[in-house]
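Reviewer 2 asked us to include a model.

Predict the structure of this chain.
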Amino acid sequence: MATYLPTLKQLQYLVALQDHGHFGRAAEACFVTQSTLSAGIRELETLIGVVLVERTRRVVRFTPLGDRIADKARRVLREAEELGDLARAAGRPLSGEMRMSVIPTIAPFMLPRILPRLRRDYPDLKLFLREEPSGAACEGLHHGRTDCVLLALPYACGEVSSEFLFDDRLFVAGPESELGSSSLTIRAADIDETRLLLLEDGHCLKDHALAACNRPELRAEATMLGTSLHTIVQMVDNGLGVTMLPEMALKAGILDHTGLTARALEAENPSRQIALVWRRASPREKDFHLLARVLAEVH
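Predicted model (structure tokens):
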């Protein structure tokens, strides 16, 4: 058995450097000085007798072995964090620190409703929130940066457990002159693909909207340039086309103070499914199920 083992702090420094690719930014993320982080990684290299990081003035490049060890370090750090999770799970429900990622097409519409309830009913819960697209959120979940993700399905998030919360119906929004006033719904076949504005790549709502319409030409013809739903609404309100919005955004008043109206999408699968997902076999699984029930109640 080795006399000396890497410390968790050294592993944390290594993972941060891989994430940020820069000693200064990695040090900031770890709340230490750059010299402290650099010294910690050099101590780790000396301890295991291999070079993990090639250093130049401009570039930080991990060796192939360094990448493998950093990946292993992530798993070790995640297991260490779960030791604390085990203790918290045995105590009061929904207490202690919890890190949750929320995708941008959910965060501004759900969080204002759910946070007051959580603060009132679970005052010992310290919920750290991170807004990021689905891909980054799932990656952060598997790397241990977050504990759970509030996500819209279907989405390939890897080996996770999940609890369905509710269906979120899709609507087509635009000037009444483009949508027509004769019906409360609009058929997917009636959407003018040359006038459709959607979120840019990386936002799963775009894929959900296109899948719901089941029209391959929409993917080729739709203009995908919006960085947020609020931005797209402003463009539509300026006469640039129509867009698709989830029901939760409409309930939150995203069309207030605009001249736009919304029609329910008439399609085979006109909804996305909102769910809470977490790593399989997490020791806080009971907490996540409880959190999911709270989220479903207040949506």
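Residues 95-299 form a domain with the D-Maltodextrin-Binding Protein; domain 2 fold (CATH 3.40.190.290). The chain has two domains: 8-86, 95-299. We have added this to the supplementary material.
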